[in-house]
């Protein structure tokens, strides 16, 4: 699961730093992800996991880090947790 | 009537009186000479209106957001530039009130504001960012352990020369990414404004907003480091800007409509019983005015409800960003259309600058609305958000 999340971020977040150096808890916005880029990350995640983020999840906090994205995805689809 | 309700009404009445007796009287001169509406702002300061939104626990009057919005509307009816200065001050102040940390320098600043009534301007836009308030080039630069400085190229700084304090957005540090921003508040004494242009413009001439290079050196505690600006922007600065601006644009449009209505009534009295073509045009303008009013009121009420929720979660959603972006686009377009409609009703006496039916200043002032955070730029943002937001 982490790999697919990192893939979406790597493809779309346009970070100012190397993604491999970032921990799961690192702040993606502080690492240079713009709001515009975050929309593309969300789209890529919806596609990769075949889910739809409801509006209440479309906030900055949910997409702040790999860990917070994982928590949101797990909440949407508990089967992904394993 | 409770004390709180009484205070709200007292403020509204005081600001209404200032709008009619001070702002209206000076509006033409402020516009013609492109000068700061000093009399209005001094009168607002004297009645405590520059701090009334500060909560009672910090010594303020705890005036509601609705009342502040209504004050913007009242001022807008009589002098657009005065209303814009008042609105911008409240936007800055509310951004601090809603996000300061307990025990921080900002808490004391708010307490002192009640007796000092300092006027706050902002330096949020920056040359080279393409109008994106969410990115900064200028950064907080360390001078020593307790002191920081910055230099920022600002394309416009509204009433900067008349403000006691400047609220500036900056990158958190010299190594921070453009989107990793914080707010800093520096006083006039700590700040140098070097104008890079003039302010000879079509409308909102009294806001005195030339471009400037802003340089400041000040204690580190005046940086609101604990709260990322992105959060302040989403929960407060952006929606509050759009709501308060919309209220004052509505005020300008209401006054233009009133002038058009007076014109039609005067015509009807002169030729009783004869058809008045302008009357039907006036009806069209009224339809547009009532739509604008409904949009402005519903957005304001939605914001107040969302602000009262724990954590203000709803304000961070994309649906919320879209809603307030749409308010800004709709209000800026409708207000200018209404003023244009009022001009059509009044004809040549509306076009002249010295009749009771003049609406030239109204039209010119509302034409600035589409440019303040350009509507095209907002459409661009919306287009991106629409790709992912679900409930619109």
Please name the defining characteristics of this protein:
heterodimer; A: mainly alpha; 3 helices; globular; B: 392 residues; alpha+beta; 3 domains; four-stranded mixed β-sheet
Given as residue ranges, the uncertain stretches of chain B (5+ residues, pLDDT < 50) are none
Task: Give the largest interface pair and sizes.
Answer: A-B, 22 and 25 residues
Mean pLDDT of chain A: 91
List the uncertain runs of chain A. none
User: How many beta-strand runs of chain A?
Assistant: 0
The major sheet of chain A is characterized as: none
- Return the CATH topology of the largest domain in chain B: Butyryl-CoA Dehydrogenase, subunit A, domain 3
Return the CATH architecture of chain A.
Orthogonal Bundle
Report what the structure shows.
The complex is a heterodimer of chains A (82) and B (392). Chain A is mostly helical. Chain A has one domain (2-81): ACP-like (Non-ribosomal Peptide Synthetase Peptidyl Carrier Protein, Chain A, Orthogonal Bundle), CATH 1.10.1200.10. Chain A has helices at residues 2-12, 35-49, 66-76. Chain A is globular. The relative contact order of chain A is 0.20. Chain B starts with a helix and ends in a 6-residue tail after the last helix. In chain B, 54% of the residues lie in helices and 11% in strands. Chain B has eleven helices and eight strands. Chain B has 392 residues and is of the alpha+beta class. In chain B, the strands form two sheets. A four-stranded mixed β-sheet of chain B has the order 1-4-5-8, with helices on one face. A four-stranded antiparallel β-sheet of chain B has the order 2-3-7-6, with no helix packed on it. Chain B folds into three domains: 3-116, Orthogonal Bundle (Butyryl-Coa Dehydrogenase, subunit A, domain 1); 120-224, Butyryl-CoA Dehydrogenase, subunit A, domain 2 (Beta Barrel), CATH 2.40.110.10; 229-386, Up-down Bundle (Butyryl-CoA Dehydrogenase, subunit A, domain 3). The longest helix of chain B is centred in the middle third of the chain and has 42 residues, at 229-270. In chain B, helix 6 packs antiparallel against helix 7 (277-308) and helix 8 packs antiparallel against helix 11 (375-386).
